[in-house]
Amino acid sequence: MATFSFDIVSEYDKAEMNNVHSQVEKEIGTRYDFKGTPAAIEWLGDKKGFKLIGSNEWQIDAIIDIVRKKLATREVSSKVLDLEKPVNESNLKATKEVPFVEGLTQDKAKQLTALIREKFPKAKPQIQGEAVRVTSGSKDELQAVMSAVRAADLDFVTSFTNYR
Questions:
Q1: What angle do CA 17, 59, 45 make, to 5 degrees?
Q2: Residues of the chain above pLDDT 90, percent
Q3: Distance of CA 111 to the CA centre of its chain
Q4: Architecture of domain 4-11+103-161 in CATH?
Q5: Which of 32, 34, 48, 109 has the fewest other C-beta atoms within 10 Å?
Q6: In what order do the strands lie in the sheet with 40-43?
Q7: pLDDT of the residue at 66
Q8: Which residues pair with 99 in a beta bridge?
Q9: Listed residue (6, 8, 16, 28) closest to 100, CA to CA
Q10: How do the domains of the chain map onto residue ranges?
């Protein structure tokens, strides 16, 4: 009997984030309420997040809303954004760094394996670094595991790779 497997990872599509960045940049340039203000979006480091710039915290929140809308239209979860960092206000300018969430921590991986073991006793999840490998003798069961993981209300982004 053949065994089939796939990996569950937590990563984002870099091309989609590029598209979101350019769309947000365009919208900031055309919106009337941002005219004459320092409102902008920039890349953080090596394209690992966004740096939002505005004249105050309200404007930063408005830019975050635009980013969320653009993510939603491109069918990317807004869970990829780490909004924990505070807004820095100085010299009539506010900035906020929004890094992207990537990689499964041990806690998140354990949460996934517990979910899979609870619902699918025949599927075998294994934590392998920053991925969870799920193996089973049935492709249908693996498809059901994927559906259950997508439907679960997790606080992080999941994607599936290495389907064999």
A1: 40
A2: 29
A3: 17
A4: 2-Layer Sandwich (3.30)
A5: 32
A6: 40-43, 49-54, 93-99, 88-90
A7: 93
A8: 49
A9: 16
A10: 4-11+103-161, 14-99
Residue with tokens 């975050």: 64
Angle at the Cα of 16 (from 58 to 60), degrees rounded to 5? Answer: 5
Structure tokens at 6: 């796939």
Residue type, 40: A
Q: Are 41 and 51 spatial neighbours (Cβ–Cβ below 8 Å)?
A: yes
* H helix runs in the chain, sequence order: 14-30, 57-73, 106-119, 139-151
pLDDT in tens, 101-115: 888 888 888 888 888
Structure tokens at 29: 């340039």
Q: What is the DSSP letter of 81?
A: B
User: Which pLDDT band, with edges at 50, 70 and 90, does 2 fall under?
Assistant: low
Spatial separation of the C-alpha atoms in residues 26 and 21, rounded to whole Å: 9
Query: Residue 101 carries which DSSP code?
Result: P
pLDDT at 1 exceeding the cut of 80: no
Q: What is the pLDDT of residues 32-48, one digit of tens each?
A: 988 988 999 999 888 88
Helices (H) and strands (E) in the chain, counts: 4, 8
Q: Say which amino acid occupies 117.
A: R
Q: How many CA atoms lie within 13 A of 116 on its CB side?
A: 28
